[in-house]
Write a structure and sequence with these properties.
Blueprint: H1 2-29, H2 54-70, H3 77-103, H4 111-133, E1 139-141, E2 145-149, H5 151-173, H6 179-200, H7 215-236, H8 245-262, H9 268-272, H10 274-293, H11 303-309, H12 314-341
Antiparallel strand pairs: 1-2
C-alpha cells in the first residue's frame, strides 16, 4: 500500500510543480494550440495556449512508478507493459502535435499514419502480454475472464481495437479545459481500487479469486497516472494555462486500455469510461446520420460542443460532464464489487 500511495504522491508533485516549467518552455518555443475554424467562437481566444502538456503527465507517471519501487517493490512485466503503451502512444501523439505546430494547421498526422502508429504499439503490447502472461489472457474479460477465448491472433486484434478505441475516445473528449484530464483521473482512481482489491484477493483454486498477473504493480501504475492527471488538472482546468494535446490524450487512453486488458476487466472499461464512450458514439452517429440523410443530429460533434453551441457556458458543460464521468465510474465499481459478493466469502 505504501508503494501505491508514494507513486500517486510523487506523480502529483512532479506534475503540479513541473507543469509551470513546461508552460514557460512551450510558450518560449511557440508551441501553441491551433483551434478548429468550425469550432465554437469562444474557443478562438484559446489560440496560442501552450500544448503538448501530456509530456508532463507521462514523465510524472514514470517518475512516480520508478520512485515507488525504490522502497522495495519489484518491477514487473505487467507494469512495464502499461508504461510501454503510455510511452508508445505518447510518441505518436507528440508527432501529431509537433506537425500541427510546425505546419500551423489543426491537423497533424494523417489518419493512416496515426493508424499505423497505434497498430505498431498495440501489436507489440499484445505479443509481449501473451509471452509474459500466458495464453489465458486471450480470453475476453468483464470483471474477470469469460468463457470466450479469442486465441493468440484474435487477442492481438482485440488488443488493437481496445487500445485504438480508448485512445481515440479520450482524444475526442479532450476538447474542453480539464474535461479529459479530470475524467481520466477518475477512471485511473477506479483502477487503483480494482487492482489493489485483486491483489488482496488472490487465492488460486477458488473461483472468487482474480487471475491478474501483477495486480499490485498495476495499482502502482494506475496511482501514478491518477496523481499525474490531478497535478496537471490544476493548470489545465478552465481557463486552461496549458493543453495536454494528442501527446496526453492518446497516451492516457492507451494506458487505460492496457490496464483493463492486464487486470482482466476489458468490458468493464466500457462502463468505467462511459463518458469517453458517449463522446465517441456522438461522433460516429453524427457522421453516419449525415452520410445517410444529409442532416446532423447534434449542433456539432463531439457532443460537448453540441451543448456549448446550445448556449451552455463552457464551465457548466465541463462540470456536468465530470458528473457523468463520476457516475459511470461509481456504477462500474459497484458492478465490480457486486460480482465479487456474488461468489460469497472466500474459503
Amino acid at each position: 500500500m505504501r508503494a501505491v500511495l508514494l507513486a500517486a504522491l510523487i506523480a502529483l508533485l512532479v506534475s503540479l510543480v513541473g507543469t509551470p516549467f513546461a508552460i514557460r518552455l512551450f510558450r518560449a518555443q511557440g508551441y501553441g494550440q491551433l483551434i478548429r475554424d468550425d469550432g465554437p467562437e469562444a474557443h478562438h481566444t484559446k489560440r496560442g495556449t501552450p500544448t503538448m502538456g501530456g509530456a508532463v503527465i507521462i514523465v510524472a507517471s514514470i517518475l512516480g512508478y520508478v520512485v515507488a519501487h525504490v522502497i522495495g517493490q519489484s518491477f514487473t512485466a505487467s507494469g512495464l507493459l502499461v508504461l510501454f503503451v503510455m510511452l508508445g502512444l505518447g510518441a505518436v501523439g507528440f508527432l501529431d502535435d509537433f506537425i500541427k505546430i510546425r505546419k500551423q494547421r489543426s491537423l497533424g498526422l494523417t489518419a493512416r499514419t496515426k493508424f499505423v502508429g497505434q497498430l505498431l504499439v498495440s501489436v507489440a503490447f499484445a505479443l509481449l502480454a501473451l509471452h509474459y502472461t500466458g495464453d489465458s489472457i486471450s480470453k475476453v474479460s468483464f470483471v474477470r475472464d469469460t468463457a470466450i477465448n479469442l486465441g493468440a491472433i484474435g487477442f492481438v486484434i482485440w488488443a488493437y481495437v481496445m487500445i485504438s478505441a480508448t485512445s481515440n475516445g479520450v482524444n475526442l473528449t479532450d476538447g474542453l479545459d480539464g474535461l479529459a484530464s479530470g475524467s481520466a483521473a477518475m477512471v485511473f482512481a477506479a483502477y487503483v481500487v480494482i487492482t489493489f482489491w485483486q491483489f488482496g484477493n488472490r487465492c488460486p483454486g477458488s473461483d472468487a479469486c482474480y487471475l491478474a498477473r501483477d495486480p499490485l504493480d498495476l495499482a502502482i501504475v494506475a496511482a501514478a497516472a491518477m496523481g499525474a492527471c490531478f497535478g496537471f488538472l490544476w493548470w489545465n482546468a478552465a481557463p486552461a494555462k496549458i493543453f495536454m494535446g494528442d501527446t496526453g490524450s492518446l497516451s492516457l487512453g492507451g494506458t487505460l486500455a492496457s490496464l483493463a486488458i492486464l487486470s482482466r476487466t476489458e468490458l468493464l472499461l466500457i462502463i468505467l469510461g462511459g463518458l469517453f464512450v458517449v463522446e465517441t458514439l456522438s461522433v460516429i452517429l453524427q457522421v453516419a446520420f449525415f452520410k445517410l440523410f444529409r442532416r446532423r443530429i447534434f449542433n456539432m460533434a463531439p457532443v460537448h460542443h453540441h451543448f456549448e453551441l446550445a448556449g451552455w457556458p463552457e464551465f457548466t458543460v465541463i462540470v456536468r460532464f465530470w458528473i457523468v464521468a463520476g457516475l459511470a465510474v461509481a456504477f462500474g465499481l459497484g458492478l465490480f464489487y457486486a460480482e465479487y459478493l456474488s461468489h460469497g466469502p472466500l474459503g
